[in-house]
Amino acid sequence: ISTITSWYLTQQVHSLFMQSGPYRPFHWQSDPCYTFYGVDGTTCSILSYLSQIEDFCPPRPGRNRSALVWHQKLKSHTERVRTNQVYACVCFCTMSRFQAMVDRGGPLGELVQWADLGASLTILGHNVTLSISQHRLHRFMSNSPGRGGCPIQRPLTFDLIYTDYHGLAHLQGAMGLAFLHYKCRYRILDSFGTEPAFNLGNYAHSRGYKTLWGSWGLQPKQYMTMFPHTPDNSFLGFVSEEAMRLEMTEEELEPDIYKKDKISVVYGKQEYMWQEKSEYLEVISEELETHATVYQPPGHPSKLPSFIINHGLLTQEHFVRLLRRAKVFVGLGFPYEGPAPIEAIAMGCAFLQPRFNPPHSSKNNDFYKGKPTTRQISYQHPYAEEFIGKPHVWTVDIKNRTAVKEAVRAILQTEVMPFTPREFTCEGMLERVHSYIIHQNFCSTSQPTWPPVSVLRVYLGPLGDSCVSVCQRSSLVCEPALFHHLNSDATFSSTQEEVNHLFPAYKPWGQHCGLQQEPMLFSCAGADPLYRRLCPCRAFPPGQVALCSDCP
Fold first, then answer.
1. Residues 260 and 297 in one domain
2. Measuring CA to CA, which of 15, 336, 367, 442 is 20 to 30 A from 492?
3. Model pTM?
4. Shortest CA distance to 377 belongs to which of 357, 349, 394?
5. What residues contact residue 451 under an 8 Å CB cut-off, 6+ apart?
6. Are strands 350-360 and 377-379 parallel, antiparallel or unpaired?
7. Distance CA 385, CA 171 (A)
């Protein structure tokens, strides 16, 4: 080995084994696995380990990486994924975090999504292994001879690993160094989304986008959301409660199943959600008998307005029966973007929701603070407003009594039929999940080929608009997988490359054209008043925004 190469390797050895780091213990003696593989603290033993056991250094002369069979199997396993083989999936969603809240009116949206994902994968013919505890997770994922500092000894048999942000941290702890080798297989259920600006650690830290939940450095499409918040992520969704029932014949349906009474049901299972909403609800109660399903501990005096009929927490079956009778499902402003309004609309309810002025975001709202998104929420349920709309969705300023009363009276005079967007039906979710499994390959180093370039429609947006807005204005959706077709000198004249999640873009002042230097930062989200963003848009079939109209 040359002197300079020897010096360089020695410096790397020092940085890897003598200092702390995000994936490395403090010292080579801190994990018994190093001794197991023959590391005794000498530079020679450490270099041998780094070249023979890990793939950090090139193999020493005359040696091969026989110990890296797991890495070779990883490569062949990855290549097989395009051939539509049976998939196995590890789902880890820290169930204990939800179980403690379910009986007290806690959030169920995440559990709905997990259940529908598991069902979809099973129906599509994939083998599913479910893990709901740290102990079970470690049994499947950790087979290093020590505490996780060394690579695992045998390759994982899972082609896809579904988890959430909490589970991702546990996976990192269980898998040690192998965590990075398998990261192309992770799919993160992320209810509110992770924008590219928050995803790369160094970039997020230097540009002020660092949050508790970001900086994992995955491909943005590996994050899977409950609603199509940003096209930068993959919209996974769920199946609406009534989607199956709506497909039954008239003979199979119960008599008068959608006969509506003059009642409303308030969306809010915990008392704190009702604070400062009495006047709004009073206006509604003047037109409709108003019902609630609020959890109240035994012996706890009710703080709800006296005109509210509270049923307490209901089972899903009884809650569905109540919604079938109701004419209006009343939003209080929180929770944001849950499954319940979609289910209510599927049962023939009109959804009445508040408008937010100014919009809610991480800058002015505690719920969104720390979340890896710059989204500004102008309604309690943006999907319902933007993708469904009237007569199923009515958005009002709830501080304006006249506007609320007029909206309620308009709803009472309108026939609102049950409606489920295709993407929330069983067929829609199966179609979407199947397309992701077939077409999304984050283990490949080549440019994405799906959707094909034939569906690309290019728009140069106005100053200050994100590509989400630019495409939406033309009834299209931004497609980040097509950015690389625009990111070339052939698109702009007089360009320069930069690491910036707003690029490719044009800056009129100074006539500056910028191309993206870091493909991981291609982003439909993000806007700046100084830039006109160049946007890749595509059409989508009715009710299935995640897929393109003319894709194979």
1. yes
2. 442
3. 0.85
4. 357
5. 479, 481, 482, 538, 548, 551
6. antiparallel
7. 37
- Exposed/middle/buried for residue 153 (C-beta within 10 Å: 0-12, 13-18, 19+): middle
Q: Are residues 272 and 344 in the same domain?
A: yes
Whether residue 256 has pLDDT greater than 70: no
Specify if 229 maps to a domain: no
Structural domain containing residue 369: 245-419
The reply to whether 82 falls in a domain is yes
Q: Residue 41: which H helix or E strand, with range? A: none
Are 58 and 120 part of one and the same domain? no
Residue 450's SS3 state is coil
Give the residue carrying structure tokens 């297989």.
Answer: 185
Say whether pLDDT at 102 is over 80: no
**Res 20: pLDDT:** 40
pLDDT at residue 84 greater than cutoff 50: no
For residue 319, the domain's CATH number is: 3.40.50.2000
- In this predicted model, what pLDDT tens digit does every residue of 27-71 receive, in sequence order? 777 788 888 888 888 888 887 887 777 766 666 666 655 544 444
Compute the Cα dihedral for 472, 475, 481, 483 and give only its sign: negative
Instruction: Pick the closest to residue 404 from 463, 330, 324, 349 (CA basis).
Output: 330
Residue with tokens 């309620």: 408
DSSP letters for 175-198: HTTHHHHTGGGEEEE-TT---HHH
Among 46, 64, 82, the domain boundary falls at 64
Predicted pLDDT of residue 502: 93
Q: Are residues 399 and 278 in the same domain?
A: yes
Asked, as a colleague might, if the bond just before 255 is cis with ω within 30 of 0, I would say: no
The total number of structural domains in the chain stands at 3
Q: In the β-sheet with 88-92, what is the strand arrangement from edge to edge?
A: 127-130, 88-92, 160-164, 186-189, 223-225, 234-235
